[in-house]
Amino acid sequence: MDANVLVSMTLTDLVMECAYQGLFAARWSDDIHREWIAAAHTMNPGRPLDKLEKRRRAMDANADEALIEGYDALIPALVLPDPDDRHVLAAAIHGRCDAIVTFNLKDFPAAVLAGHGIHAAHPDTFLLEVLSEDEAAFVTCVRKCRSRLLAPPKAADAYIAQLGRVGLPMLASRLTAYEDLI
Questions:
Q1: Both ends of the chain: CA-CA distance in Å?
Q2: 113, 120 in Cβ contact below 8 A?
Q3: Most CB within 10 Å of its CB: which of 41, 61, 92, 109?
Q4: Are the beta carbons of 5 and 101 closer than 8 angstroms?
Q5: What is the spatial distance between Cα 55 and Cα 88, in angstroms, rounded to a whole number?
Q6: Contact 19, 1 (CB under 8 A)
């Protein structure tokens, strides 16, 4: 998971629930944690950093083997359009990931990633694929995420609309067919 996928609490909650239920293995690094925490804090400076650090610890504790370490030596040899993204690719290579899930597909060219057996996937496309692989399990994950929203509670249609607003318009559109189950 690239940092930009983990900034939104709504999206992170869905990613974590799906990973917790075994629909895929979520992976990240301490560098990725630092990036999403910095971005989340910049977007909402009133949110205390200790709350974001608590979320980070919960993510590491609830996703088996998610934290990738020991990839630093790979970074200097990698070439990407944005050199600041090399740590993401290095972690993916070292962690033997199949995909880098990111909103910034242009920063991870297919030709570069293919040489490492990795592809870049937009979170909307990635989660649609997860849904198509096990619809019942995915819808259950969505329902669990929505049910945790208590202050205030969200109706299924409002939650689905929120998924669209955080960058998952195709998934939101597809989930309308399951609204009664969510």
A1: 25
A2: yes
A3: 92
A4: yes
A5: 20
A6: no
Closest by CA position to 25, among listed 132, 98, 91: 98
Query: How far, CA to CA in Å, does 142 sit from each of 55, 96, 159?
Result: 19, 27, 9
pLDDT single digits (tens) 24-76:
999 999 999 999 999 999 999 888 899 999 999 999 998 889 999 999 999 99
Instruction: Give yes or no for a contact between 175 and 128, defined as CB atoms under 8 angstroms apart.
Output: no
The enclosing H or E element of 113 equals helix 110-114
pLDDT averaged over every residue in the chain? 96
57's tokens: 């610890």
Q: Is the pLDDT at 151 greater than 90, yes or no?
A: no
Segment holding 141, helix H or strand E: helix 135-147
Element (H, E) at 99: strand 99-101
Question: Quick one: angle between helices 86-94 and 30-43, nearest 10?
Answer: 140
What gap in Å lies between CA 99 and CA 111, rounded to an integer?
13
DSSP labels, 13-44: HHHHHHHHTTSS---EEHHHHHHHHHHHHHH-
- Token couple for 19: 């990973």
What phi and psi, each to the nearest 5 degrees, are found at residue 81? -55, -40
